[in-house]
Design goal:
The chain is 47% helix and 6% strand. The protein contains 4 helices and 2 strands, in the order ααααββ. The model has no long low-confidence stretch (mean pLDDT 79). β1 and β2 form a beta hairpin.
Length: 129
């Protein structure tokens, strides 16, 4: 309903992938990881060698997939329960009127006496409301 997936979903995925893609210091085999500005070290204190960058990218992709699965399963469960117990939709009269008019009435700062409003194609006398 609020299209938050574009910002939180897509940008979050890009942030996770960019952390792995752009953390190579001096090349693809020089990976910082959790060591800040120095390379990840082996047990003997030297920089770890090998394709650790590809491993980290693979782990970050797996993490993105797990997060998508977790969010999808729990969101689906919540929406299923809301639909099952009829909390997902508003009633027909409110839908015809519009939720903004119903929840945020009056629609203007000042209501003039005898003013008519139009709800769902029909005119409503505001003095009777």
């Amino acid at each position: 309903p609020v299209d938050a997936g574009c910002v939180h979903g897509a940008c979050g995925i890009w942030g996770v992938l960019a952390a792995a893609l752009f953390d190579w210091g001096k090349g693809f085999h020089h990976f910082h990881g959790w060591n800040g500005f120095s390379c990840m070290t082996a047990d003997d204190g030297t920089c770890r060698k090998g394709s650790i960058g590809w491993t980290v990218l693979g782990v970050n992709i797996a993490m993105v997939l797990c997060i998508l699965l977790w969010a999808g399963v729990f969101s689906g469960a919540i929406f299923f329960l809301l639909k099952k117990f009829a909390f997902l939709r508003i009633d027909d009269a409110t839908e015809d009127m519009g939720i903004d008019e119903k929840a945020h009435s009056p629609g203007k700062a000042y209501e003039m006496e005898g003013e008519e409003r139009h709800y769902g194609g029909q005119s409503v006398d505001m003095e009777r409301v």
